[in-house]
Amino acid sequence: MSLMTSNNEHNNSINHGTDTTQLTSVTTLLTNPMAFDTARLHPLAGLDKGVEYMDLEDEQLSTMEGSQGLIPSRGWSDDLCYGTGAVYLLGLGIGGFSGLIQGIKAIPPNASSKLQLNTILNNITKRGPFLGNSAGVLALSYNIINSSIDALRGKHDTVGSIVAGALTGAIFKSSKGLKPMGYASGLMAGACAIWCGIKNSLLG
Q1: pLDDT tens for residues 45-102?
Q2: Is the pTM of this model over 0.70?
Q3: 131 near 94, Cβ under 8 Å?
Q4: Of 53, 58, 147, 189, which residue has the fewest beta carbons closer than 10 angstroms?
Q5: Kindly report the CA angle at 154 between 151 and 159, in degrees rounded to 5?
């Protein structure tokens, strides 16, 4: 009996000794989160000053003369990434389709279905990556040269693009001799002229 009485007295002392201020604070925070005082946080957190949003200057579009294209661009880095990626995928697709046609034509007579599929896949994987990689290197070199010319001249126009294309073609075939360099330079310059004409007509 005396043991039960002492346990009850101990429990009553614990209940009466509970800090009601802490319970009130928790209840207030749960019902009204805005009542939380951020100044009580660690000063290194800096949350007592509120949340500040960063203003990224990289989000501003390029203001260079003539730099407005079909796709909004923030500068040479966007042109380099988007241009190279798009041309690479285009070359990969065209090369893969060309490999598909060549693979169908190269199927041996009376070949089994497994051999037919293997022949087609071999031609696709041979032509697709080759043309895609070549197109990607050309686009990467062109964008670097074109951006350098634009930075030196302070503007972007058709003349600069054609010159960049001619230089890109010459550099791409520089190890093959003067004649291949001339052909590649002329083809790249012509392709750039056609692209600039299409872009200018679409932009109006």
Answers
A1: 555 555 555 444 445 655 555 555 556 666 667 777 888 888 899 999 999 999 999 9
A2: no
A3: yes
A4: 53
A5: 90
Phi/psi of residue 65, nearest 5 degrees? -60, 125
Determine the pLDDT at residue 184. 93
Residue 143 one-letter amino acid: N
Measured distance CA(149)–CA(99) in Å, rounded: 36
List residues bridging with 40 in a β-sheet.
none
How many Cβ atoms sit within 10 Å of the Cβ of residue 70? 9
CA distance 9 to 144: 85
The Cα–Cα gap between 185 and 141 comes to 13
Shortest CA distance to 140 belongs to which of 130, 152, 132, 129?
132
Provide DSSP, 107-121: PPTT--HHHHHHHHH
CA-to-CA distance for 42 and 70, rounded, in angstroms? Answer: 50
3-state secondary structure (DSSP) of residue 155: strand
